[in-house]
Amino acid sequence: xxxxxxxxxxxxxxxxxxxxxxxxxxxxxxxxxxxxxxxxxxxxxxxxxxxxxxxxxxxxxxxxxxxxxxxxxxxxxxxxxxxxxxxxxxxxxxxxxxxxxxxxxxxxxxxxxxxxxxxxxxxxxxxxxxxxxxxxxxxxxxxxxxxxxxxxxxxxxxxxxxxxxxxxxxxxxxxxxxxxxxxxxxxxxxxxxxx
Length: 195
Prior knowledge:
Elements: H1 9-17, E1 25-30, E2 33-38, H2 42-54, E3 60-64, E4 67-69, E5 81-85, E6 95-97, E7 101-107, H3 113-126, E8 131-136, E9 141-149, E10 156-164, E11 169-171, E12 176-178
Parallel strand pairs: 4-6, 7-8
Antiparallel strand pairs: 1-2, 3-5, 5-7, 8-9, 9-10, 11-12
């Protein structure tokens, strides 16, 4: 049986803002839907740590699980890593405006694969986040998306560059080459395609 709730999306935003998330879980608001996930595994965390360690601290803030405010969207995604210029970080608050973000990173899990490649791709593009890096330990590859365009669900990135694990990936927006040779892998999972 499927329950359908026809309350306005603004109610979901209010519920989300007051939601008490159990320890070990994270919650995101994605286009009016509240999505709750269990904490990530060791491979996931080691990849995030490796990426974070390669981004120079003197110029960049590397924030883990930071909520992002996407204008004109009922979305508050929580990427695995948010990269912001040191002087662009707001002084306080739970949300960082997407306009202040230089790069978001998502490390794919079997439960997040469709959201990371689908919904979040268009959400980050709609928020004009300049670069979105999807790191997929099941496919042993990185997908770098740049040049966001469009609005709402039609938003997307114009440029995509794929790199296999073991090959350095140029992150020009940060002025670095990301070494991916130590990224761990997981058994493959079949992605579902968006209609």
